[in-house]
Specification:
Blueprint (H helix, E strand, L loop, with lengths): L1 H10 L3 H11 L3 E2 L1 H26 L4 H25 L13 E2 L1 H25 L5 H23 L10 H18 L1
Parallel strand pairs: 1-2
Length: 184
């Protein structure tokens, strides 16, 4: 259960590396308070999704919950990949183009990145992930990956040759694989 929880948190967070690289290349700054807002929103949104999934699980059998969870995770993976192929935007959340992510922008960015984790949390809850660790993992990994991507973007100019959208494709693929393993 611990390993599944960690892998789901990583797979739902990996696209934060690509967004971090984008901001790093633009030399965009994340203040301490922006990081704190990002962490709080991620952990809160993911916790709420697990709470609601827990309520839903009371009304359906465990085998049906496992199927719903697996198909939900696969569906999110497929949706992530298709959305990435259709959408060519750069996910620019620096709305005022100040090269500094303020609190409002951090809130919007964290909601955007947490959307996958909310859905994965519902599906993961159905297949039995640790509902206490998952929100903490998601928030920590999202922030770590965002900052790691930012570091890469600022320090390794050669990384700019790697398309930013590759991280979203990896994330979607991992979700599909995890969902499929739950069907076996």
């Amino acid at each position: 259960m611990f390993f599944n929880t960690l892998i789901l948190a990583i797979s739902s967070s990996i696209d934060a590396i690509g967004i971090g690289i984008t901001y790093g290349l633009k030399k965009t700054k994340f203040s301490f308070f922006s990081r704190l807002i990002f962490f709080i929103v991620s952990i809160t949104a993911t916790s709420c999704s697990l709470f609601f999934a827990g309520i839903l699980k009371k009304y359906i059998s465990q085998s049906i919950a496992n199927l719903i969870g697996a198909f939900l995770i696969i569906g999110i993976g497929i949706y992530t990949i298709i959305s990435n192929l259709k959408n060519s935007s750069s996910n620019n959340f620096d709305l005022d183009n100040s090269n500094d992510i303020n609190l409002k922008e951090a809130f919007i960015l964290s909601l955007s990145l947490t959307t996958d984790s909310i859905c994965v949390g519902v599906g993961g809850s159905m297949i039995g992930i640790n509902s206490y660790l998952f929100p903490l993992f998601v928030a920590s990994i999202h922030l770590t990956f965002l900052l790691f991507g930012d570091f890469l973007g600022k320090n390794l100019s050669s990384i700019s040759k790697l398309p930013n959208r590759i991280w979203t494709m990896i994330s979607g693929s991992l979700l599909i694989i995890i969902g499929c393993t739950k069907l076996l």
